[in-house]
Description:
There is one protein chain. This protein has helices at 57-68, 104-109, 118-137, 173-191, 195-198, 203-209, 214-220, 224-233; strands spanning 12-13, 17-25, 29-36, 41-48, 78-86, 89-97, 102-103, 150-154, 160-163. It folds into two domains: 12-97, 2-Layer Sandwich (Phosphorylase Kinase, domain 1), CATH 3.30.200; 102-239, Orthogonal Bundle (Transferase(Phosphotransferase), domain 1). A hairpin with a 2-residue loop joins β5 (78-86) and β6. Helix content is 35%, strand content 23%. The strands form two sheets. The protein has a six-stranded antiparallel beta sheet. 30% of the residues are buried. By secondary structure, the chain is an alpha+beta fold. It is built from eight helices and nine strands.
Amino acid sequence: MRKAFSFKKGRVLANRFTVESLLGAGYEGEVYKVIEAHTNTQRAIKLFYPERNPGFKVSSRCARKLDKLRDSPLVMDYLSHEVITIRNEKVACLVSEFIVGEVLGNFVLKQKQKRLEIFPAIHLLYSIVSGVESIHLHGEYHGDLHTDNIIIRRFGLEFDLSIIDLHHWGDSKQDNRDEDLIKTIRIFYDILGGTKRYSKLPPSIKYIICGLKRNLILAKFRSVTALRIHLENMDWSDAI
């Protein structure tokens, strides 16, 4: 079993990155907030476990995907792919911008009754949908959308959002784009209060959520673009 890197604050990596804190860990590796030497700039670095990244194929694919999506308004800015030595092992390191903000799931929990009202929830959904659409139009997908990998930086009529932790799965890209659509609607459902609130939602909102039934959602919205167009033209006067 892989032993975690588990770097503590103050640890210096590659003679240029000083660890500030662990941001998260998963199957592929660990993500840290660091301070870059000389510039004193905050960065995020992802360190890939060597056994999960043979020949640096996984990290290289991730870097290419981030670079391809550099114009997407939701995707963090990718800076470089590097190989550093840790405990006598060659470890791939992706360097990206550090996104200042709050995880969407935590943000929602701080709201009254731990949910968003319909008006801001629709605007937030539209921001997510527009960003995911830009990813799909580049022929890619996110692969694991949920409220804990969306960072929110501004709250109002428009939202300043970033999506982190893109994935690559072996299934077809169309299947994964469909899954992005399903999970985007699941986020909408969750931020509105989930199971406890669903029965009280107006028909215009239930029309989008479809009881989270995958076949019904995909029958109504063949793509995330179709969902965006629906949001731009929908009559949600019953929700006011």
